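Summary of Year 1 activities. Much of the first year was spent building the evaluation harness for sequence design. The harness presents a backbone, in tokenized form, and records the residue chosen at every position. We chose the following record to illustrate the format because it has been used consistently in internal testing since the harness was completed.
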């Protein structure tokens, strides 16, 4: 069983958290890669198939709360929520509960109710008797609607009858169809059963069917969670009193129960469950006694411990269309470690109780406003442009200052980025790259034509007691070894416009910017040639046998025709105007070292064919350079299209790259091709008529874009 205890999780960077979850077995290597690459996010194209009138995908943070033990099982809780106090409070509540064995959750059944409402009956008593007398027949007919559900051990368990009077006095018969939907949420299952038997029910009642639909009051699927905490008498009694207030005051109960649902809803969304249905059922259950009251009960046991209990109606699912269509929901479900819908409901009940404890404890001690001020401070730090490496420090100092204001956030950022003498900390920038022609051929001495993405990465070094960064250790170690300066106390702050792993030279740009920043900080006296050598060493670490074009373009930041046939040969190109280029990328990520190795293996099998392809690329790169100089976009576009065909021929394109290339050409680009190593990553499109239409088409299809002209912004 995996251990859900992860101490100091909040102090780790995002990449480190993912690595930790993979190390502990909560994430498979494939799921960890999806998180790192952003491939778990629902695409716009997929969203368009889910609901009507889609114009984009809305993002919320996906976080985790560790430390949960439920019925002796370890769990990680995925949460989709924007409020930081929820995740922190839930994690702490779970950690405290471990000391007494965690949470115990029980349930007698897990059933859903479908309703067929009948009005205008000639004889109500006859109608009730007829439905009850035909129960076996109705159950058989209902189960025939979903025979595979019955095969899995589910199906209709009972038919019940309830009598009401409408506002005008007419009798209303509610025929309840009680269904075991197994691991499915079950709304569609139950609705189809109700619709199927409704005509027979109407005939039996000699009446008219008014409604036939599921009920979201899942009171046949009640889960009771219990927990015990050891607290000081003062803190314990304050929580009991707070709960008692919510039991007698419905105004307080509404806020009290909202705190419960902060955790329940966040887990439901993260696992692709219908949180709206859960909300409706829970609040109806809270009013079942005739007035709205608290969902929880907190008392003191004979040993002086605080004992909490919650009872929630929860019918959730671990299979179904939402999970199949939304990769983030499937990943969230995998993170929980549950094996079926019952275990997910048990975890959800425990989360509701833990979240209530966290809220009541905050109210009884520091007050709830501290968490809200932290949320506000984080928003201000983000809007003030706090770099990732300084973000948590800015938030902490902003809260400590007592002036949680935008001007204060900017002041703190400026102070953190200054050294002890009051001067700006050392900083440097570097360019990204886009290859127009000649990928892979350049590894074998042929020419490649490439342009810089100016100032795409900026690195700032801030004085610190030790070396602090969020980059791979071996990457930074390699750079510092090349620079001859391993023992240095600085925080490396990276601000990058480039997506990682998309063929745009992000690793080389970061390496060049870091080398330049250390050069300025320590007055190393390095020229561009040496900076380029330092960055190339890190590129070899990252990519195996790189051509060197990435670090060279990043260092010199000029359009160039590049070759290394007889040593490094660079022809800088003077351009009167930049070509109207648009870069686009999707969820796929290519690994340069793997693709270079695959091409090498292909060349070893068929050297003549591959060398012929590389020779054609070489010719295209040289003629493309002439077209670039003269602004002949038509000729350059033809060269790009031909080069893409050659890259596809050697196996480095993908179906998604082909879709992007085709979409760009259909939307007005005269040339479009993959750029970089391939196997995922990006395309570049040449758009003489402007990038707007191509950009709109790409974004509508769920791709991200970057424009390389002055006509637009990324």
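For this record, the design step produced the sequence shown next.
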């Amino acid at each position: 069983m995996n251990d859900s205890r992860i101490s100091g999780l909040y102090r780790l960077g995002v990449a480190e958290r993912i690595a930790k979850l993979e190390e502990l077995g909560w994430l498979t290597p494939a799921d960890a890669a999806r998180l790192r690459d952003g491939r778990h996010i629902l695409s716009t194209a997929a969203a368009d198939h889910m609901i009507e009138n889609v114009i984009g995908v809305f993002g919320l943070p996906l976080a985790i709360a560790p430390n949960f033990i439920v019925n002796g099982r370890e769990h990680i809780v995925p949460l989709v929520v924007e409020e930081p106090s929820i995740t922190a409070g839930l994690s702490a509540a779970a950690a405290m509960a471990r000391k007494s064995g965690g949470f115990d959750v029980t349930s007698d059944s897990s059933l859903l109710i479908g309703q067929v409402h009948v009005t205008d009956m000639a004889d109500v008593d006859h109608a009730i008797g007829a439905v009850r007398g035909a129960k076996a027949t109705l159950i058989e007919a209902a189960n025939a609607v979903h025979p595979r559900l019955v095969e899995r051990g589910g199906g209709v368990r009972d038919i019940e009858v309830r009598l009401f009077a409408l506002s005008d006095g007419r009798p209303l018969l509610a025929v309840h169809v009680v269904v075991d939907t197994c691991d499915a949420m079950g709304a569609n299952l139950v609705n189809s059963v109700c619709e199927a038997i409704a005509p027979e029910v109407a005939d039996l009642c000699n009446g008219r069917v008014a409604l036939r639909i599921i009920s979201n009051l899942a009171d046949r699927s009640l889960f009771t969670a219990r927990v015990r905490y050891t607290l000081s008498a003062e803190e314990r009694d304050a929580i009991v009193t707070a709960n008692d207030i919510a039991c007698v005051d419905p105004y307080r109960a509404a806020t009290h129960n909202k705190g419960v649902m902060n955790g329940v809803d966040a887990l439901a969304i993260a696992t692709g469950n219908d949180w709206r249905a859960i909300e409706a059922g829970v609040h109806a259950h809270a009013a079942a006694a005739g007035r709205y009251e608290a969902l929880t009960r907190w008392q003191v046991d004979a040993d002086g411990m605080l004992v909490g209990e919650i009872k929630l109606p929860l019918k959730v699912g671990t299979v179904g269309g939402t999970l199949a269509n939304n990769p983030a929901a499937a990943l969230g479900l995998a993170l929980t470690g549950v094996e079926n819908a019952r275990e997910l409901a048990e975890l959800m009940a425990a989360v509701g109780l833990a979240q209530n404890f966290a809220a009541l404890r905050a109210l009884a001690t520091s007050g709830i406003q501290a968490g809200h001020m932290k949320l506000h401070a984080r928003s201000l730090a983000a809007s003030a442009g706090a770099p990732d490496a300084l973000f948590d420090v800015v938030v902490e100092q902003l809260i400590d200052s007592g002036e949680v204001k935008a001007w204060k956030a900017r002041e703190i950022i400026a102070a953190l980025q200054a050294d002890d003498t009051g001067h700006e900390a050392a900083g440097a920038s570097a360019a990204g790259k886009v290859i127009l022609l000649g990928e892979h051929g350049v590894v074998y001495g042929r020419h490649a034509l490439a342009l810089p993405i100016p100032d795409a990465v900026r690195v700032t070094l801030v004085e610190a007691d030790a070396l602090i960064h969020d980059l791979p250790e071996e990457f930074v170690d390699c750079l510092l070894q090349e620079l001859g300066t391993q023992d240095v106390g600085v925080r490396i702050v990276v601000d990058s416009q480039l997506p990682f792993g998309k063929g745009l030279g992000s690793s080389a740009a970061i390496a060049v910017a870091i080398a330049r920043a250390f050069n300025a900080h320590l007055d190393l006296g390095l020229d561009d040639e040496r900076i380029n050598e330092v960055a190339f060493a890190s590129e070899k670490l990252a990519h195996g046998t790189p051509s060197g074009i990435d670090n060279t373009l990043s260092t010199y930041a000029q359009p160039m025709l590049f070759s290394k046939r007889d040593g490094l040969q660079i022809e800088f190109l003077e351009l009167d105007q930049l070509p109207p280029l648009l870069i686009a990328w999707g969820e796929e990520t290519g690994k340069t070292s793997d693709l270079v190795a695959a091409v090498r293996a292909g060349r070893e099998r068929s050297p003549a064919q591959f060398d012929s392809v590389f020779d054609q690329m070489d010719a295209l790169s040289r003629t493309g350079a002439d077209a670039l100089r003269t602004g002949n976009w038509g000729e350059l576009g033809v060269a790009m299209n031909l080069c893409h065909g050659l890259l596809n021929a050697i196996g480095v394109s993908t179906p998604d790259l082909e879709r992007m290339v085709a979409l760009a050409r259909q939307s007005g680009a005269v040339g479009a091709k993959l750029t970089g190593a391939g196997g995922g990553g990006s395309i570049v499109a040449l758009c003489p008529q402007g990038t707007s239409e191509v950009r709109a088409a790409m974004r509508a299809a769920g791709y991200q874009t970057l424009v390389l002209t002055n006509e637009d912004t990324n």
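The domain at 427-707 is CATH 3.30.230.10 (Ribosomal Protein S5; domain 2). Quantitative recovery figures across the full test set are reported in Table 2.
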